[in-house]
Amino acid sequence: MRSDLAALFIIFGGSGDLAQRKLYPALFNLYRKGYLKESFAVIGTARRPWTDEHYHEIVMASLEGFEEDDETKQTFTSHLYYQSHDVTDAEHYETLKALAAKLDDKYQLNQNRIYYMAMSPRYFGTIASHLGSEALLTADGFNRLIIEKPFGRDYESAKALNQELTQTFDENQIYRIDHYLGKEMIQNIVALRFGNGLLSGVWNNQFIDNVQITLAESVGVEERAGYYETSGALRDMLQNHIMQVIGMLAMEVPVNFSAEDVQREKTRLFRSIQPYSPAEIKQNFVRAQYAETTVDGENKPGYRQETNVAPDSQTETFVAGKVMIDNERWCGVPFYVRTGKRLARKETQINIVFKKTGVNIFADDKSDRSAMAPDVLTIYVEPEQGFSLTINGKEVGQGFSLKPDQLNYQYDKQMLADSPEAYERLILEALNGDGTNFTHWHELAASWQFVDAIRQVWDADQTPLPTYSIGSMGPKEATDLLASTDAKWIFDPTQTKK
Ligand code: NAD
């Protein structure tokens, strides 16, 4: 048994959707792979008065997709305890503390504790202060706080939340989760960038023309309309996931691949993002809503027709923008970003578009010797995972014309079958005290400030939002963003089937 992996997990929101869909399967994966052995325990807390038996049934149901036999699952769930707990009631922390101490003895947990906030963000501050005031933090083991998104809804609220948390926890005890940083291919970005001389040498504005990041969803708001109405795509996807992807793609080389060095470089990068004036925001950022659309003869509701959405809602379900970075490496290179719901296909893809060099000496038409497709490095994040390099070769046959060819590497299903899911990976990293793939407060502060400026301009502008058809890749305005240059969106499933 590796004693460094002994820990008690206290999950606030233990009956919730995140806990059931992601956290219990992730913990079970760590268990069946041997990262968690005898010395671990979980306390699930929520308001409902459940018994341990009922809690175990709920957890067993969340493990249905696993092939392991029931006995293995039951041995795992025997380490799980339920505590009915109202997070606003100080007395309940006394009960929690007593149970934690008992489990600490029973499973020899070395007083190591991971507090997982898997409930409404409005309680994050309350829970952290009670953990401090009711003395749940242990003196001898580690105390780490894993905190879910959203971390605030603007810079001011994020700052206030951070101040509340840091009264009890130090920055290096806080693990702000962005599950994108737990994805295999997002982690792979640094391997590609810093593990290949071929790429690291050209990873700058001399060779790269533009960078494109697309996080496309095919689903609508589904049951989350209540939350989504207060958030929108800018806060829900751009402020966190897209900004973190930009961070991984564009940060300078960290001294080491460690939390301290990576978080420092990402913070420096975010601080180098060019601030826009209100007029520049209108020019460089586009928002839109999906409209009622007939797909294959069936009428699909637009965003404003969805349940729990205001009929005159100004909440954006799509955002696209051009982000510029004012530093020596990236000056002049647009980072085009795009995310939205009800788009043509669920896919996350990154395209690094290289500058065309020289002239096309093979062009038939001598007056158009620039006609040549750019070289493109594509990183497939999901659902497929892998990368490809599109380069020009000679078209087979007589004559001499250029044709883009793809050097393609896709991880095969077998290889990925047991690869850890984002939550599994990140929980293990937190257990090991490795914060490299979590976000530092300084990164968040800078990204909120960038996003707030956009939000303010949009909130002041009551003109109806542009709309887009369900199954498209967003409004025309998103295509027009690139029109002033020679570039176009590389990923366009409405044009080509991959
Ligand atoms: P949920 O509404 O399904 O669960 C909330 C949990 O909090 C429940 O267990 C509920 O009983 C408990 N709770 C509410 N008030 C309480 C109180 N006063 N005292 C004690 N317990 C109380 O929410 P969720 O979807 O699981 O989301 C939890 C957090 O995770 C949120 O911050 C959300 O933004 C974030 N998140 C969720 C997902 C997801 O896929 N569900 C994805 C990313 C982030």
From TrEMBL:
Report keywords, A-Z. Carbohydrate metabolism, Glucose metabolism, NADP, Oxidoreductase
What's its EC?
Answer: 1.1.1.49
**Where, in this chain's numbering, is NADP(+) bound?**
47, 86-87, 149
Q: Where is substrate bound in this sequence?
A: 179, 183, 217, 236, 341, 346
Q: Does the keyword Signal apply?
A: no
Which pathway is this protein engaged in?
Carbohydrate degradation; pentose phosphate pathway; D-ribulose 5-phosphate from D-glucose 6-phosphate (oxidative stage): step 1/3
Which residue numbers delimit the Glucose-6-phosphate dehydrogenase C-terminal domain? 191-489
Sorted alphabetically, the Gene Ontology cellular component annotations on this record are: cytosol
In this protein, the active site sits at 241 (proton acceptor)
Reactions that this protein is recorded to catalyse = D-glucose 6-phosphate + NADP(+) = 6-phospho-D-glucono-1,5-lactone + NADPH + H(+)
UniProt domain Glucose-6-phosphate dehydrogenase NAD-binding: residue ranges: 10-188
User: Could you tell me which SUPFAM superfamilies the record lists for this protein?
Assistant: Glyceraldehyde-3-phosphate dehydrogenase-like, C-terminal domain (SSF55347), NAD(P)-binding Rossmann-fold domains (SSF51735)
Instruction: Name the enzyme's class.
Output: oxidoreductase
Q: Superkingdom of the source?
A: Bacteria
Any one Gene Ontology MF annotation carried by this entry is:
NADP binding
Q: Example GO biological process term?
A: glucose metabolic process
What would be one Pfam family of this protein? G6PD_C
**UniProt xrefs under PROSITE patterns:** G6P_DEHYDROGENASE (PS00069)
- Report the family membership: Belongs to the glucose-6-phosphate dehydrogenase family.
What biological function has been recorded for the protein in this entry? Catalyzes the oxidation of glucose 6-phosphate to 6-phosphogluconolactone.
Query: What PANTHER family does the entry give?
Result: GLUCOSE-6-PHOSPHATE 1-DEHYDROGENASE (PTHR23429:SF0), GLUCOSE-6-PHOSPHATE 1-DEHYDROGENASE G6PD (PTHR23429)
What NCBIfam families has UniProt attached to this entry?
zwf
For this entry, the protein name equals: Glucose-6-phosphate 1-dehydrogenase
Gene name, per UniProt, is zwf
